[in-house]
Specification:
alpha+beta, Immunoglobulin-like, six-stranded antiparallel β-sheet, three-stranded mixed β-sheet, 21% strand
């Protein structure tokens, strides 16, 4: 009997609490919204516009802002189409992010316009909130009513026809741009002419009846100038052999019509082996060209005697292969 009495008292107490809840609807609503309040304190979304009515073609700014606790949930930005309810989004700013402790806020500005008159609704945009521990839920911004008005027309006034083209009198100030541009162009032309006249090269008359330098004389002169520069004596063996081989190759090309400047050493020697005027100097050419290649490409260090031998062999080859001019013009050299 005592147990039944205790149960009866608990039942009466619960029944009394339920009656209090039903008598106080605000308390009941608070209990029902308690779970949502716990979620909402970690994420909020809102929107606002700067005008409730515009003229056709004008623009209204729409601000959207969302805040959430970054360590407790993830926020997915709302899908906002380019057009909705006869309204269009003509420009979107980038989504700015501002962090303040655990709270992260995202902001975006949209420019909305309408080209039809009437009252149109900017809908609520839904954001997805994904808690790390809990069930995902949606938050939506407020919706707004936007009135798009046409330009008022005074129907009491008569229609006016299109006016004819009016001739506007021009003054010299209308041509100031052309005047300044023409003056600058004339100044530039005068400066260019003055520069070329001042720096005009005076042509020196060519000497008449001066003896022409032969191919042999040219090569020997270049060999002499190379010796006077003393390149290998100052440690510039590579430069010495580059110039030495170039002079020798140029002589072969001009004297014997062999494209020595384009041929490799092996190609030059293959031509020289069977050439009637060069084959007697095949060994000397081989020594000079291969020594030059080793110094230029293999970074070899020839001895001082080899430097001298390469120069002497090159000079001897040039001296011993002059162009023979026959006293008889009809005879072959």
């Amino acid at each position: 009997m005592k147990i039944m009495s205790n149960n009866y008292k608990a039942f009466l107490k619960a029944d009394s609490s339920m009656k209090q809840l039903t008598r106080n609807p605000f308390l009941l609503l608070s209990l029902l919204l308690l779970p949502f309040s716990l979620w909402a304190q970690n994420a909020t979304v809102k929107a606002r516009i700067d005008a409730s009515q515009i003229t056709v073609g004008d623009q209204v700014r729409l601000w959207i802002e969302a805040t959430h606790a970054a360590n407790e949930n993830t926020l997915q930005w709302a899908t906002i189409p380019d057009t909705f309810n006869s309204l269009e989004i003509v420009q979107r700013s980038k989504i700015d992010t501002v962090s303040n402790g655990n709270q992260t806020t995202y902001k975006q500005q949209l420019l909305v316009t309408g080209f039809d008159s009437g009252s149109f609704k900017i809908p609520a945009f839904q954001f997805s909130i994904l808690p790390k521990n809990g069930t995902p839920y949606l938050l939506a911004t407020d919706s707004f009513q936007l009135l798009v008005q046409t330009i008022p027309v005074d129907t009491t006034q008569p229609f006016k026809g299109i006016k004819d083209i009016m001739v506007v009198k021009r003054t010299w100030q209308d041509y100031i741009g052309w005047i300044v541009g023409g003056a600058l162009l004339l100044g530039l032309i005068a400066g260019v002419v003055y520069y070329f006249l001042r720096h005009k090269k005076v042509e020196i008359p060519k000497p008449i009846n001066l003896p022409t330098e032969t191919v042999q004389e040219k090569a020997l002169r270049l060999f002499s100038e190379l010796e006077q520069r003393k390149l290998w004596q100052s440690g510039k063996e590579k430069e010495y052999y580059v110039e030495l081989s170039d002079i020798l190759r140029s002589y072969l090309e001009e004297r014997f019509k062999i494209p020595a400047l384009e041929f490799t050493t092996d190609e030059i020697l293959s031509k020289a082996r069977f050439h009637p005027e060069i084959r007697n100097y095949y060994d000397a050419l081989t020594s000079v060209l291969y020594t030059s290649d080793l110094a230029k490409f293999a970074k070899a260090q020839p001895t001082p005697q080899e430097h001298l031998n390469a120069m002497e062999q090159s000079k001897a080859f040039v001296k011993n292969t002059p162009i023979i001019v026959s006293p008889n013009p009809d005879a072959k050299p």
